Amino acid sequence: MPLNRRTFLGRSAAAGAGVAVAGGAVAGSAGAARAVGQGRGQGHGRPPRRYAFTVMGTTDLHGNVFNWDYFTDKEYDDSAHNDVGLAKISTLVDRVRREKGRRNTLLIDAGDTIQGTQLSYYYAKVDPITARRGPVHPMARAMNAIGYDAAALGNHEFNYGIPVLRKFEEQCDFPLLGANALDAKTLRPAFAPYVIKRMRTPCGRDVRVAVLGLTNPGIAIWDKANVGGKMVFPGLEEQAAKWVPRLRSMGADVVIVSAHSGSSGTSSWGDQLPYVENAAALVAEQVPGIDAILVGHAHVEIAEHFVTNKETGRRVVLSEPAKWGQRLTLFDFELVWERGSWTVERAGSRVLNSNSVPEDPAVTSLLRREHRKVVEYVNQVIGTSVVAMSTADAPWRDEPIIDLINQVQTETVQAALAGGEYAALPVLSQASCFSRTAGIPAGEVTIKDAAGLYPFENTLEARLITGAQLKDYLEYSARYYVRTAAGGPVETAKLTNADGIPDYNYDAVSGVTYEIDIAQPVGSRIVGLSFAGKAVDPAARFVFAVNNYRASGGGNFPHVPGARQLWANSDEIRNTIIGWVREKGSVDPAAFASVGWRLTRDGVPVFA
């Protein structure tokens, strides 16, 4: 894949391309800050020249423009009363620009922009932006209107395939950055690595601000079907070490990294890749010359965090605003002109809460028609349900609503393999509780109800596994529970998510029965694993219906990524569920629900 227009922009920005609007008054001081210089005079007793500016940042917007939950069809709310969406962010951005002077601000993003809501899904799949005379993606329209200067690529940018991503890139008035997203054949950047913006100061000395974009190496695993053989994604530290010195040599006074990578130093893929998934702090620590990092991917709010670079001893400020437009990061920089160049004297960060402001009517009116179309789409009735089903207790009980997902997957795989070599093998299926607030109501079932069970764009595969591998898989999944001694009380609020394992990395498997003894240590929890009333033979063979994220190594579950693939589907599991409900007409848990697993302590059930 040749270098495109955005890549050329990144490489030529130092010569004047991508220059920001200039001039303006000196902005306010940075927040909790680091001191890297003392502001020495410049001869003849004159005071040093100073300049301050602010870089605003968002990340993990995941298709949120409005403060609206399309899965519940009402205004978004959570237990902390957070708000979401670019319309809220726009109001905050306008306030900061008025306070600082627009010429003294930049606005960037750290990725995961075009996946996550039914609004973004609709314009990728239902009324796709890639169609001839297709629409402009709502996220592009909103971000263009707000005036973003750059955005890093997130891993979810690749979920809908490269053509959708390229069309989105074409529709954006700002570059999509990915210094470590390389063409597989040439190993040259497939997207712009960076952009350099000029800030005109009152003293007549421009400040050149470089924004380097880095994305997540896990794309190679999670979206292998879309990027395999087309792009490769080396580690963030490696590529930052390559590009930051270049940016400094090109005259960058300030270097900011927009990284779709958390700061914890952990990875979810084990030894499948030689890179770190959440590498932002490592980049700050190992690569000299960086002033600040906008962190993304981890969905962990970090208002301000400092990391000391091992080589220079300078502190780098990191910030990660909360997902979906709940927060806006402000990096405040104070610079001093001394010895013929600008030096960052102070840098700090803070976050603003979007629930403190109203939505910007300029953004909501711009996309009101698109919003209404999607609301109408998600409210289409596709069937009925005999009873109401909920995911509220699904993290610790075998609930019918998770059985529904497994039933759909099992039937789909059985139909796909019918008449073939593996048709006689029993089909097992895995499913996770992606949301503890999803549900199917009694009575009419709509698209939003069914889609709410599966908010991710995962597709379905069939892999061949053995009984021994199944046991290992279940033991790994059972790490999710906090070890709880027999006899004492059990608090569900403290029972799950051991070691920070998210709900989507706990799998319930249908087609077999088993107990999870949470009084036992990790690795020794699966008891009574049986199929058709008999203990599972370690050598027995099973077909495993599994989503592509898990099959590609997501969550680092054992055996499945290396197991033989028997079949794969390109349609989202969400759509398969919707189609299944449409075909059946009526959903009755009596036809598919059963208690296949339960939590125990020394053989005694935890819950009745």
TrEMBL record:
Q: Name one GO biological process term.
A: nucleotide catabolic process
Could you identify this protein by its name? 5'-nucleotidase
Q: Does the record bear Disulfide bond in its keywords?
A: no
What cofactors does the UniProt entry give for this protein?
a divalent metal cation
5'-Nucleotidase C-terminal domain segment(s): 381-560
Catalysed transformations (reactions): a nucleoside 2',3'-cyclic phosphate + H2O = a nucleoside 3'-phosphate + H(+); a ribonucleoside 3'-phosphate + H2O = a ribonucleoside + phosphate
Q: Which InterPro entries match?
A: 5'-Nucleotdase_C (IPR008334), 5'-Nucleotdase_C_sf (IPR036907), 5'-Nucleotdase_CS (IPR006146), 5_nucleotidase/apyrase (IPR006179), Calcineurin-like_PHP (IPR004843), CpdB_N (IPR041827), Metallo-depent_PP-like (IPR029052), TAT_signal (IPR006311)
GO annotation, cellular component aspect: outer membrane-bounded periplasmic space
Metal-binding found in the keyword field: yes
Q: Which residues form the signal peptide?
A: 1-27
Q: According to its UniProt record, which protein family does this protein belong to?
A: Belongs to the 5'-nucleotidase family.
Calcineurin-like phosphoesterase domain spans which residues? 54-300
Q: What is the lineage of its organism?
A: Bacteria, Bacillati, Actinomycetota, Actinomycetes, Kitasatosporales
Tell me the domain of life. Bacteria
